Amino acid sequence: MISPIRYVLLAVAAIPFIYYFIALFSVWRFFRSSLRRSTPSDSYTPPVSNLKPIRGLDPKAYENFASFCRQDYPDYEVLFCVGREDDPAVPVLEKLIRDFPERRIRVLFGSGGVGSNDKVIKLSRLVSEAQHEVVVISDSDVRVGPDYLRKVVAPLADSKVGAVTCFYVAAEDKNLIDSLQSIGMFSDFYVGIMVARQLDGVKFALGPTIATTRQRLAGFGGYDAIKNRPADDLLVGRLIAEQGYEVELLPYTILTVADYGSMRDLFHKRLRWIVVMRHLRPWGHFGLIFTLGLPWCLVAIAIQPTVGVALGYLGAYIVMRFAMTWMVGIWGLKQDVLWKKLVLIPTWDALAFCMWLTSFSRHSIRWRNVEYYIRDGRLVPVVPIDAAPTG
Fold first, then answer.
1. What is the value of pTM for the model shown?
2. Domain residue spans of the chain
């Protein structure tokens, strides 16, 4: 006979399944509404400034940058901001300018500002130097198709839309580490985004792509107002939404080129994000424990080690996790190759649980070879910026 305490613990262990039901409904509703929603007309093509802050050289950087020079779009410029003239990305940018003489490409050196978030300081200068009102901001590891600008700019034709963002997928998965990263994005990160959208609307943006206007950025003080803050992409979406505008999340994908050299690299890069979230949303971060089904299934089995409990909890966990990942990656985002990686979901979930536990012991993050504390929602370099290593 199961004791009352065990009943309570078994009930608690079932809480992640409630989250999974919400997630399945949220994913279904997002992609279902996307299919029914009329596609914005590609005829809205205002002049655009592509803004790219650069620090160091990402894998296959030339191919990434060149994709922005092959856009099927009538009028646009591409602006890069590099901290120093000896940055290893500079020769690649010089080759880009030679190879695409028909494109307006400018390279700015130095941010001209002071702050702890190097990327944001560069973006502040890029926005001020942009020739056009519409700006499209993207990371240096992003690669896009020729229709990219038409897709992400079109929703801005609606005056209610203040920013546009979209999903991103790996350009290729070369090894197990890359495959784990991909399965984590589809089964975990994007699922969480869908739930957040369903419960509270889209009040965030995803860093690989943000399309907006200089006026919308100026509405919250521009990038200069967040130059000492982490998670600038999240903040830009939130601050634009707080002005009363909609942030449009498109069911459209771009590519990113991964640079995970080892499992350690993957662990620490994902850990960096989750540590930032622990500081920005401490209660929400703590609540993540009730979205992690695998450890709770093991708890349930430890409490009541019977075949029925094992099959019930683990069976429900596997079916629901596979279903939500299939809905996001294969049904929604048309990533058919994801079929081969579904078996990695439990491995990823175990890794995600380890990251969550580890995040409580971390007091700093590392980004681009610089160590930062997060204090009162701000980035504080462990070593003063002037003395910090570059790269």
1. 0.92
2. 39-261
